[in-house]
Amino acid sequence: MDVMKKIEYSQMRMDIPSFKAGDTVKVHVRIIEGDKERIQMFQGVVLCRHRGTTDATFTVRKMSDGVGVERIFPLHSPFIERVEVLSEGKVRRSRIFYLRKLRGKASRIKSKNSWDN
């Protein structure tokens, strides 16, 4: 194994659960304001996931007061406290950027866990 690959794998986090595009997740992010530190939650739908070793990222979108807010999180960042998967979505694509154009009920994603598929 390469020296660089050994360093990259030592920096990776293995406590992140598996999720994919369409899943609803709650990301607990560590925020530092001055000398204080707190944890802020960001709950939304995963639009895409860029795979990789230490440079893997995922994009989460939520609606806040009628305005769509997207945030890109580095997957192996030490500022991410934890990621909770709330529900698994039933989508056919790996990047669901079409959600940006949809409004209201049209932007809902069917749940994979529901009994009435």
Structure description:
- By secondary structure, the chain is mainly beta.
- The chain has one domain (3-90): SH3 type barrels (Roll), CATH 2.30.30.790.
- The protein has 1 helix and 5 strands, in the order αβββββ.
- The protein has one helix at 3-11; strands spanning 24-33, 36-50, 57-64, 67-74, 80-87.
- The protein has a 5-stranded antiparallel sheet with strand order 4-3-2-1-5, with no helix packed on it.
- A hairpin with a 2-residue loop joins β1 and β2 (36-50).
- The longest helix is centred in the first third of the chain and has 9 residues, at 3-11.
- The protein is globular.
- The protein starts with a helix and ends in a 30-residue tail after the last strand.
- One of its GO terms (cellular component) is cytosolic large ribosomal subunit.
- This protein is located at the 30S-50S ribosomal subunit interface and may play a role in the structure and function of the aminoacyl-tRNA binding site.
- This is Large ribosomal subunit protein bL19.
- It comes from Desulfonatronum thiosulfatophilum.
- One of its GO terms (biological process) is translation.
